[in-house]
Amino acid sequence: MKPILILLTAFSCLATGLAAQAASSVDLSVTGLITPSACEPSLSNGGVYDLGKIAASDLNLDQPTKLPPHSLQLSINCAASTLLALEPRDNRLGSSYAGDESFKFGLGLINGTQRLGSVILEVDSIMADGVQMYPIGSSGPSSWAPTTILSPHFLSAFTPNKTVTAPASIQRLTAVVSIEPSIAPANTLSLTQEVPIDGSMTLTVKYL
Q1: DSSP 8-class letter at 105
Q2: Which residues pair with 75 in a beta bridge?
Q3: Which of 67, 71, 70 is nearest to 181 (CA)?
Q4: Residue 7 — φ and ψ, nearest 5°?
Q5: Rounded Cα gap, residues 151 and 102, in angstroms
Q6: CA-to-CA separations, 32 to 29, 35, 207, 208, in angstroms, rounded
Q7: CA distance 199 to 208
Q8: Which of 75, 117, 164, 201 could covalently link to 107 via disulfide, CB atoms 3.0 to 4.6 Å apart?
Q9: Architecture of domain 29-207 in this structure
Q10: What is the pLDDT of residues 71-128, one digit of tens each?
Q11: Looking at residues 129-158, what average pLDDT do you find?
Q12: What are the phi and psi torsion angles at 154 (to 5°)?
């Protein structure tokens, strides 16, 4: 819709330009910052949680089946103290089963339509530069609130003070990422053959 609105506005200016004596030029700016510091995130075990094989008969028929939770160690190392946040992305977006999809990640689809399940990610036990940190989340550029959940729909940053909901600069950070997967009710899935559990998430460092 934006290109259409721009074109209509431009036409309107042309049509009334003589009467209103409107300016015949417009400015366009390209802005941003190049940061001298770079940060590298990493996860233990290569960021993989292998659930192994799960028998279809072990799944709940009419309600989600919670699978064993697991934890991975998250590390972020920066060349210098840097103001940053984590930007999670769900590489299987749209495959999360039911519930609140604003914070759940998907586990893939069966036959292109059946949502296999979902994953909740949480972050805790956070230390940065020798100081305990607390997680905060934001869906906008200036509004932050305490949350331990990593979501594909908002940024997550860290603060050393529970009462100050503003991101802090860090150089070296370690944290525990808790992974809580669940499978959709068996009566919503076609399980006559082996089905891969196909969750995939990306955590990207975003410079603030």
Answers
A1: E
A2: 42, 174
A3: 67
A4: -65, -40
A5: 7
A6: 10, 10, 11, 11
A7: 28
A8: 117
A9: Sandwich (2.60)
A10: 999 999 999 999 999 999 999 999 998 877 889 999 999 999 999 999 999 999 999 9
A11: 93
A12: -150, 165
Q: Please state, in angstroms and rounded to a whole number, the distance separating the CA atoms of residues 115 and 118.
A: 8
Which residue type, as a one-letter code, is found at position 178? S
Residue ranges of E strands in the chain: 39-43, 65-66, 70-90, 105-106, 109-110, 114-115, 117-128, 131-138, 145-146, 149-150, 155-159, 169-183, 201-207
Judge residue 67's burial from the number of C-beta atoms within 10 Å of its C-beta, 0-12 exposed, 13-18 middle, 19 or more buried.
buried
Positive or negative CA dihedral for 102, 199, 134, 168?
A: negative
Which two three-digit tokens encode residue 179?
């992974």
Ordered by start, the domain boundaries in the chain are: 29-207
pTM of the model: 0.81
- For residue 176, how far is the Cα from the chain centroid? 16
**Cα–Cα dist 187/195, whole Å:** 15
